[in-house]
Design brief:
alpha/beta; metalloendopeptidase activity; globular; 4-stranded mixed beta sheet; 139 residues; cytoplasm; 21% strand
Length: 139
């Protein structure tokens, strides 16, 4: 079950479409969908989580808490829409594109992909692009 929660004034335009897409990402990795909660928030909210749980006093676009067990993918994914907006400008991409990248990124972590080394980052970026391509404009 995939749920979307909002701690700011942001809202996904079509939750059902995003839910179907996230399910497709999980399925494409031969994993089983458990309970995944997306929490959209602002920088201050996510900074507080970053300090409280990770002892990092820095802004970030995403923090994910992985509760997966084996192939059952579950967790909480916190996304700062403020960071996503700024990153979209920095990377010269549309907000929606950057949001999809970050949303996919969180789930890909649960599927076992890392981003600590340069090689890991390269694999993660390729997987993000592959999963973004699964998002269908027309259903």
């Amino acid at each position: 079950m995939i749920s979307f929660n909002y701690e700011n004034d942001f809202e996904l335009p079509d939750e059902a479409k995003y839910e179907e897409w996230i399910s497709e990402i999980i399925d494409s990795e031969d994993k089983t969908e458990g309970e995944i909660n997306y929490i959209f928030c602002n920088d201050d909210y996510l900074l507080e989580k970053n300090i409280e749980f990770l002892n990092h006093d820095t802004l970030t676009d995403i923090i994910s808490f992985d509760y997966s067990m084996g192939n059952l993918i579950s967790g909480d994914i916190f996304i700062s829409t403020e960071r996503v907006k700024d990153n979209a400008i920095d990377f010269n991409v549309a907000f929606e594109e950057e949001l999809k990248r970050v949303m996919a990124h969180g789930v890909l972590h649960y599927c076992g992909y890392k981003d600590k080394t340069e090689d890991d980052v390269a694999v993660m970026r390729a997987k993000e692009e592959e999963k973004i391509a699964l998002f269908h404009v027309e259903q």
